[in-house]
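INFO  loader      accepted 1 record
INFO  loader      residues=532
INFO  predictor   begin
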Amino acid sequence: MRLLTTIAALRCYLTKRCSQNQLAVLEGLVLDEMTSWYQTAVGLIPTMGGLHQGHLSLIERARQENSTVIVSIFVNPLQFAPNEDYERYPRTLELDRQLCEQAGVDAIFAPTPEEMGIAEKSIKESRFTQVIPPSAMISGLCGRSRLGHFQGVATIVTKLLNLVQPDRAYFGQKDGQQLAIIKRLVADLNLPVDIVACPTRREPSGLALSSRNQYLTAKEKEQAAVLYRGLQQAEAAFKVGVRNSSKLIAVVQQEVAMVNSVSVEYIELIDPTTLMFLEKVEGEGMLAIAARLGSTRLIDNIILRDRQPIIAIDGPAGAGKSTVARQVATELGLIYLDTGAMYRAVTWLALQQGIAIDDECAIAELVNQCKIELTPSQDLQSPVRVWINDTDVTQAIRTKEVTSQVSAIAAQSAVRQALVKQQQIWGKRGGLVAEGRDIGSHVFPDAEIKIFLTASVSERAHRRQQDFQKLGQPQVSLEELERDIAERDRKDSTRKVSPLQKAADAIEIQSDGLSASEVAMQIIDYYQQRLS
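INFO  predictor   done
INFO  writer      dumping tokens
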């Protein structure tokens, strides 16, 4: 692991690292473009140091999804007001370095303020360019008491994204306002990075992990846990039908008031994307709290969703996801969202129009101009009919030609961005069963039920052969199917864009020797247990 303190060293490291990875691909005779993408993928975790298990969970996620993981450690003076704790903020670089090395981080970038172009003199005289998020997003919540804080965050995060140019950057949900602002920043400035939100990590008491927890005594940590208890009480009220903002806030206030030493700064119900205040939760709301315990300021939040549950089923090709998902949706009265069919439809259209599979520019144009529709069908074998540009392609997208090319299409950034955006719009209403390669880890990371369905290569090849026979397709040998499936597994698990992986909170089901109905019943039983 390298410790880098200058921008020049960082750029040199990234250039060299990328070259080494590309050379390794060539030396290994792995010439597949998707694999070479993965081997140069970079993940960034911006921090201010004082690392804890929350940061380590971000590193773990980044390690799973990228070849190179960079952690930045920079106590940003721009986000501290004159009366805040900039001087005494925890600075534990040596301990942080050890934790990063143990977690498999490739490099730490730990610059000084001067290296980042914001020396004390330039701050006082405002002699540097700043990034200013929308005023409506920075004027409420923490922005009321921390004037200039989010401008400072946005400025340094933008600089870090420009310097590292990562494929993904990882942030915790605990800082919900910051997360929403950074997502908006990336969208508005068209920055080519995927912002990955990761769940809040907590101490056994429920207290959200934070570098500032180091300021608290053992007794104060026990007292501070009341913040999360208050949020939990509101969540319980929400689950039995309370939707009004004032009532939910009152529930939190009542719980927090039981600890006299905690001074509440705000409790608000807001839209987690726009940060606008909500009178009641109609789709999704974030209940956020900030409070002081002595001189220590603490924040926390919880997401409240008023929607039917989502079941996300991931797994490798040929594991039986589609068949199982259809049965689960039928039994539970949910909608089957056939995301794989969407990628197949785009693949079919590209082949029909004679577009080369590796012509990403042409395919980007295609996917952003086409219209895909999924409509219910009475046919139990094909319960969802698939239309693209008003053409019914339900059967056409299941041919061997489409199947052999769909991974290459699905790995393209523009395709996934366009289709995931559409899927997430459908997902806001909930009540879905969706299956694919990254449904639980990327498309619906907040799905209530996550399943990773898998099977051996030989089992999947046998099932695929049977599917071809039922559809009247030409006979293919088991040996050829096994080779195709193994190759597709490799491509799906090593692609740069949303690689196939089991979500951390997913239940794995090995389906060898099980019928689709038996697997479906396992999922239904789990669903009913979770939601009872």
